[in-house]
From TrEMBL:
The keyword Plastid does not apply. Residues 14-253 form the ABC transporter domain. It comes from Pseudothermotoga lettingae (strain ATCC BAA-301 / DSM 14385 / NBRC 107922 / TMO) (Thermotoga lettingae). Keywords: ATP-binding, Nucleotide-binding, Transport. InterPro entries: AAA+_ATPase, ABC_transp_ATP-bind, ABC_transporter-like_ATP-bd, ABC_transporter-like_CS, Oligopep_ABC_C, P-loop_NTPase. This is Oligopeptide/dipeptide ABC transporter, ATPase subunit. It comes from the Bacteria. SMART domains: AAA (SM00382). PANTHER family: ABC TRANSPORTER, ATP-BINDING PROTEIN, TRANSPORT ATP-BINDING PROTEIN. One of its GO terms (molecular function) is ATP binding.
Length: 315
């Protein structure tokens, strides 16, 4: 697919959190100079283990957090700490987030109609009933779902409601944080297919965050692999999964996403480093079967065709 232009450019994004451990205050280096691009109509998956910084990046784009340094350009403007209320509203209308848990996203005492109507009220969008009907059709839910309570719907139907709300304002970018991780395997594919169709029908650009390389390959054009707050490999989704270059991507690839299938478990190969004091050089070197002396100082990125890989093996 040919893309027209970038809707998001992240340059050297840094985010630290302050945490208290006993009497001491520590800095967690959650994002360490992250560079990423999202093209119009593209689905980019950020893949990595728990704690690698995927959600933090998504939340910065969603303006739930602000970045400490670096520059982030979204839909033609630079995101800065302060935006006027009208700029903030316009931004939130255009950039919507889907959270991983469709159960906690929905208020159990409110009908689906109220949940879906809320953004239309906030953004003063007219033609409410018509738009409610349209989005339900788009997410393939029957119209009578509007008058149901969340507990009357299945997990997959609830996630469809959450997706309906995310598209009701006709956003340009969707940020999907593990949208299928709480769902049964049988329903996962239908939700991924729905996201793909929305992208195709409306040219919505998406950042999809997941632990699961298989669903990333299924849904994305490009994959960025994140480890300890850094992107270690980035490129075409199929190439990354079928022919991973970075030793960490190779490890993710060989780990069985399905616990019923035999295979390497990530925990068996060690743990990611503590982000309070991340190591110098390559952060993966302590777990890497190919580690050598240079890895303790190497921080570069190598471009191989369309792929970027941060590993000294490819120098
Ligand atoms: N609000 C916060 N306060 C302090 N530390 C945080 C906060 N949010 C995230 N962190 C830390 O930042 C690092 C990155 O976390 P993040 O949630 O972005 O990772 P993740 O890859 O999305 O993991 P998961 O898949 O488990 O959600 C972790 O070490 C985490 O403990």
């Amino acid at each position: 697919m040919g893309f027209l232009s970038s809707v998001l450019t992240a340059n050297e994004i840094v985010k630290n959190f302050t945490v208290r451990k006993g009497f001491k205050i520590h800095k967690v280096h959650a994002l360490r100079r992250v560079n990423l691009k999202l093209e119009q109509g593209e689905i980019l998956s950020i893949v990595g283990e728990s704690g690698s910084g995927k959600t933090t990046f998504l939340r910065i784009v969603a303006r739930i957090y602000t970045h400490d340094s670096g520059r982030l350009f979204v839909l033609g403007r630079e995101l800065c700490r302060k935006m006027s209320r009208s700029e903030e509203l316009e931004y939130r209308k255009n950039v919507q987030m889907i959270f991983q848990d469709p159960f906690s996203a929905l208020n159990p005492v409110k009908k689906i109609r109220q949940f879906l109507k809320r953004p239309l009220e906030i953004f003063k969008i007219s033609g409410v009933e018509e738009r409610l009907g349209e989005v339900l059709r788009e997410v393939e839910l029957p119209l009578d779902s509007l008058d149901k309570y969340p507990h009357e719907l299945s997990g997959g139907q609830r996630q469809r409601v959450v997706i309906a709300r995310s598209i009701i304002t006709k956003p340009k970018i969707i940020l999907a944080d593990e949208p299928t991780s709480m769902l049964d395997v049988s329903i996962k594919a239908s939700i991924l297919n729905l996201l793909l169709r929305l992208r195709d029908d409306y040219e919505i650009s998406m950042i999809h965050v997941t632990h699961d390389l298989a669903s990333a390959k299924y849904i994305s054009d490009r994959i960025a692999v994140m480890y300890a707050g850094q992107i270690v490999e980035e490129g075409n989704a199929q190439q990354i999964v079928d022919n991973p270059l970075h030793p960490y991507t190779k490890l993710l690839r060989s780990a069985a996403p399905d616990p019923d299938r035999s295979g390497l478990k990530l925990g068996e190969t060690g743990e990611p480093p503590d982000l309070i004091s991340p190591p110098e050089g390559c952060s993966f070197r302590m777990r890497c079967p190919y580690a050598r002396k240079e890895c303790s100082t190497f921080t570069g990125t190598v471009q191989i065709d369309e792929r970027k890989v941060s590993c000294v093996l490819y120098m």
